[in-house]
Structures are given as C-alpha cells and as structure tokens.
Request: fold
Amino acid sequence: MTFELNGQEFIELNKLLKLTGVAESGGFANMVIIEEAVKVNGETEIRKRKKLHKGDVVEFNGERIDIVA
Reply:
C-alpha cells in the first residue's frame, strides 16, 4: 500500500500505522513499535515518533507501506 504525505514534510511512525489501519489504535501502534515488530527501510525501529519522509518504506505484520509525496 502507499501513503501520500499530501504536502506535509513527514509523518510520525505511530500516526502512520494508525491512519493506514495497520494498527487499530494509537496505543496498539506504540506497543508494536516498542516490541520491535516494525521495520523502517529494512531496519527494526523502536522510536514511536520516528519521522518518515518520501521514499521511506514501513513493514509490519506482512504489510508494506511506501511513503510518497
């Protein structure tokens, strides 16, 4: 799936997971990030508010999210 930034410079990782429906809530998004279940650009990411920019790729639970402008 893709996520469009719509003119924004970035989106925070936990907000992305919630907005795309990959995580059913913000609390759940934070939990799976802390539990090292999320990858950004192939690397495990534990920063809940990691800023994601155009070109970044997020992977969680078999889902892939490509960030586009």
